[in-house]
Amino acid sequence: MCVSIQFDKSSKKPLYVQLYEAIKEKILSGEYSYMKKLPPVRKLCKELKVNLSTVTKALNQLQIEGYIKAVPGSGYYVVYNEYQDKVIFEEEILLSSSVETINLASSKLPYSLYPIEEFKSSINAAIDSFGPQIFDYVEPFKNPLKEYLVEDYLKKFKIYTNSSNVIIVSGAQQGIEIVAKSFLKPGDTIFMENPSYLGAYHIFNNMHLNIIGIDIDQMDQIEDYVKKFSPKALYIIPFSQNPTGISYTEEYKKYLCEIAEKYNFYIIEDDFLSDIATEEESFPIKAYDKQDRVFYIKSFSTITMPALRIGFVVAPLEFSDEVAYFKSTADISTSLFIQVCFAYFLKNHFDLYIQKLKSYIQEKRKLFLDLIKEYNLSKRLFTQNPKGIFVSFLLPPKTSSAYIYNKLKAEKVLIQPHTCFYHKPNSINFFRVSFLDCNSLELKTGIEKIRDVLNSILQKEGE
After folding, report:
1. Which of residues 85 and 196 earns the better pLDDT score?
2. Helix, strand, or coil here: 447?
3. Which domain holds residue 363?
4. Which of 128, 195, 448, 463 has the most other CB atoms within 10 Å of its CB?
5. For 49-102, where are the alpha helices, taking DSSP H only?
6. What is the sign, positive or negative, of the torsion defined by CA atoms of 327, 330, 331, 335?
7. Peptide bond preceding 243 in cis form (omega within 30 of 0)
8. Same domain as 124, residue 248
9. Quick one: pLDDT band at residue 281, thresholds 50, 70, 90?
10. DSSP H helical segments within 297-349, as ranges?
11. Number of domains present in the structure of the chain
């Protein structure tokens, strides 16, 4: 590999920085391609007429940022490629898991918490009550799930509606898609938090919507963005936002409803976790929707068992028929068998189950925050007082979360790098963890290893 790098001797910029920038540019341009070996350190020193310290500092920074990798006894290789900053899906991370791995990436519950016996009871009750009819495509009877949602469940969250506005869906992903199709068309502008759930982004992108990402720490300035871009919709996760873990206040939710009416846009609310909330301010945005401008999407996958694929949409009256239509074109209907069984589960077992789940999550969250404090990592948290199941660790601007991911993976600890959540160039560099699917010893060991990896990086960067 030829070394063709020129230094600007008149520049105040240190030589190692100029060298770092030159090599980085060659990698990004493709001149130094994936898995290409860099020239030996001594050759770089000789041909560029710089000392060993200059070359070492430049290469160390490139390694920290995930552009190159040192192979003992061989040299440095380019490990950056055009896919590095694409999404690393949670499913791919979970496939890397093993018995020995501490999984801080997963947002699912441990199997021991799955309400298996309660659901068995619900299945038997559903079959005894409705017989073979629950195995039809569509209900030949009054839907017990819709009935219970409207008359009981939703009222607990101060949401008052009727069954014609409730559409049962096969999980939040389907809910997001049919809602978007019901009132948005190509070219319409939609706002998203940045970072956010990329599953929603891909739906909006495939519909050729104009997606505007608002940095999560700029959401208090949303009205300025509304005035500038005139959105048709806002997609938002108001409780335990994925991935940052922030939860919006009651005041802010009311404010969103007010400006939605004032500037004529709609809110797509994604609620996957508010059942475990303990404070009144954790009511959904829909609870404050006086002008019927909120599409409320509720999924039970995270808080029960993912394979059930059950959720629902409460649509504004003027769009309920459209949402129902796009649901019917997607898969005719969500399994009637699952709907009826889940109705019995909600009615007879859900409240007690949720109380146990709340206690489990509160216990895990307290242990997590105690460990964070013990290991002096508090200042690294994006959200100091998380109320849900996600916590994000802030990283120095030049540190690649993919690099952190690989370092921790080598230590048998799995985390979620920021590439899973950004749909535009990131302004906040972080990685996400969840404390749900690990025991106390695993959590303690995992946090220790995170501390050690972060400390080693920060020492190299002089932070």
Report:
1. 196
2. helix
3. 90-113+352-461
4. 195
5. 52-64, 90-95
6. negative
7. yes
8. yes
9. low
10. 320-331, 336-348
11. 3
3-state secondary structure 257-276: HHHHHHHCCEEEEEECCHHH
- Contacts of residue 15, Cβ cutoff 8 Å, sequence gap at least 6: 7, 50, 54
Strand-pair partners of 167 = 313
d(CA 433, CA 440): 15
pLDDT tens sequence across 106-124: 888 999 999 999 999 999 9
Q: Which tens digits make up the pLDDT trace of 224-274?
A: 999 999 999 999 999 999 999 999 999 999 999 999 999 999 999 999 999
Residue 102 and residue 34 in one domain? no
Assigned domain for 8 exists: no
Rg (the chain; Cα; Å): 25
**What is the pLDDT at residue 29?**
65
Mention every residue, 6+ apart, whose C-beta is less than 8 A from residue 408: 414, 415, 449, 450, 453
Percent of the chain with pLDDT over 90: 71
CA 221/CA 217 separation, integer angstroms: 9
